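Design a sequence for this backbone.
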């Protein structure tokens, strides 16, 4: 079984970018799940049922975008989207949480939004962030993977993903990358994500998807048995 990824989805255009990145990761054997965080519970039963139904319909639209109506979908209750996703990722032992960039981000650039930054400050899952307007690239192939400040977990993640996709791993920065893998800072707790100020700057300068890996906890991309023969 491959790694699991929760896609943060609320039907906005930047979350369509997250769907597009999730679709790319699925080609490496990543199992996807869509999640939407509701912030309030209605005291009136009929209104609560309506809000829940609308949330489920929203996630179904995301599944249609992925052309996968069987993708698992979760509605989470939390006052904070970041907190709700952090709880879900920890509860399900998810490997990755996927975000789009902040809605004000220029096309082709990466800028973590508030919810993504919450998971970049102590989350248990790797954090993947798509550049703005990534959704416009319908056919994406990852051929070159860069590693920034690579500890063993980040390098192992990059190497296994490259083996899975037939890609090459290069040192970052490089002239041409399709994905940037970033390690957590050395003082982060084992299995937690925490990025340095230099890594934060590199993420915000990126023009390709970014995958930030918890310290000492690589994302494991097993090579299919047929590929190993």
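Sequence:
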């Amino acid at each position: 079984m491959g790694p699991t990824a929760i896609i943060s989805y609320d039907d906005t255009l930047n979350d369509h970018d997250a769907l597009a990145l999730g679709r790319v990761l699925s080609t490496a054997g990543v199992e996807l799940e869509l999640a939407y965080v509701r912030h309030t519970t209605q005291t009136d039963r009929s209104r609560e049922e309506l809000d829940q139904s609308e949330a489920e319909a929203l996630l179904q639209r995301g599944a249609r975008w992925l052309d996968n109506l069987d993708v698992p979908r979760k509605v989470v209750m939390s006052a904070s989207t970041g907190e709700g996703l952090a709880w879900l990722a920890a509860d399900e032992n998810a490997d990755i949480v996927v975000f789009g960039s902040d809605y004000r981000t220029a096309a082709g650039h990466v800028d973590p939004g508030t919810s993504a930054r919450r998971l970049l400050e102590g989350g248990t899952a790797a954090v993947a962030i798509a550049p703005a307007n990534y959704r416009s690239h319908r056919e994406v192939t990852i051929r070159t993977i860069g590693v920034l400040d690579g500890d063993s977990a980040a390098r192992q993640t990059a190497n296994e993903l490259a083996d899975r996709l037939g890609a090459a791993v290069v040192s970052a920065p490089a002239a041409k990358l399709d994905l940037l893998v970033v390690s957590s800072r050395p003082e982060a707790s084992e299995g937690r994500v925490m990025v340095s100020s230099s890594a934060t700057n590199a993420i915000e300068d990126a023009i390709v998807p970014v995958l930030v890996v918890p310290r000492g906890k690589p994302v494991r991309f097993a090579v299919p048995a047929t590929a190993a023969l």
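The mean pLDDT is 91.
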